[in-house]
Amino acid sequence: MRAAVLHETGQDKLEVLDDVEAVGFGPGKVRVRVRATGLCHSDLSAMSGVLPQPAPFVPGHEGAGEIVDVGEGVRGLKPGDRVVLCWLPACGACPACRRGQTELCLAGFMNAGTPNFRRPGGDVFGFAGTGTFAEEVVVDAGCAVPIPDDVPFDIAALIGCGVTTGLGAALNTADLEAGSSVAVIGCGGVGVSVIQGARLKGAAEIVAVDPVAARREAALRFGATRAVAPDQLADAKQQITAGGEGFDHVFEVVGKSATARTAYDATRRGGTLVIVGAGAMDDVLQLNMFELFFDEKRILPSLYGGGDVLRSYERAIALWRAGRIDLAGLITHRVPLSEVNEALDQMRTGSALRTCIEI
Ligand SMILES: [Zn+2]
Ligand SMILES: [Zn+2]
User: Fold this and answer.
1) Closest listed ligand to the CA of 109
2) Could you tell me the distance, in angstroms and rounded to a whole number, from the CA of residue 306 to the centre of ligand 1?
3) What is the pLDDT of residues 94-128, one digit of tens each?
4) DSSP string of 280-320?
5) What distance in angstroms lies between residue 289's CA and the mean position of ligand 1's atoms?
6) In 189-232, which ranges are E strands?
7) pLDDT at 112
8) What is the pLDDT of residues 204-224, one digit of tens each?
9) Residue 5: left (phi > 0), alpha (psi -120 to 50), or beta?
10) How many angstroms is it from 310 CA to the middle of ligand 1?
């Protein structure tokens, strides 16, 4: 079957090969025919080495498709079922799951050293245990979450990562009150989903901050009340918040210490900084002990929406079906798998909110 492979960490192009096989099928596993996958910024971060990931690997972790085969002992799934692929499945039994913090379950990472694919040249891994830039994947049954028939594959794929991450940061993690002031730094697919979540919660002002003009324009369509380049954030803060004290809630959706520092400074004393972006282990955020204590700003990281993942999927589908969030509008580009490198370029230049790769 066909899959897009990164041969070595640090390379910037994928090779679409037709000699790849999804491996590992057996008890407790399902085989999924991938139909659509989004390109998430984390895929680029894994390719460049910012996020840890053994190579060679098939990127992609935001996907949806149909079950083609179920292994022994799998319940509740059968061939033909439509599913979202979940890269952070919950085991239901570990201390984090028992506390209801299923987004902190590490079960999905236990197989991180096991290859997901094979080709004549050797083993190939799947990014985040999935690797959706492929016609087929074999995953734990818990990674295949059934979806209703009225949810198209391209919409379902977005729910598999970006939408769940962004909406959840606003709906689960931030204690966002109606009437509050919000700034969102980084307005790709995830940032725009944060904006939609902040709008649902009744934020008064939502300032979108992004260096790319096309993304600023998109942010306004999704509910931002103002959109500025990074060098205009200080002015916006001065104009919008009382005495320029800073925003009630600032979301960092880039994953860099420099933007996190900017976000911290843009947060009012006693306000909330939500860290959504996925950053590198060697990129260190510096805060001095005086400001940390004296300004009482709350720093709340948000992993994969910071809440129960299955509940987050259901909520996103309900909001989409009721027309309360726009998911189709997130897909600004579409390419077939053979043109996956164009999708990478669209993400790098910032011209795409999401490129849907149709497989
Ligand atoms: Zn668990
Ligand atoms: Zn992602």
Assistant:
1) 1
2) 14
3) 999 999 899 999 988 887 789 999 999 899 999 99
4) -TT------HHHHHHS-PEEEE-STTSS-HHHHHHHHHHHH
5) 34
6) 205-209, 226-228
7) 76
8) 999 999 999 999 999 999 999
9) beta
10) 13
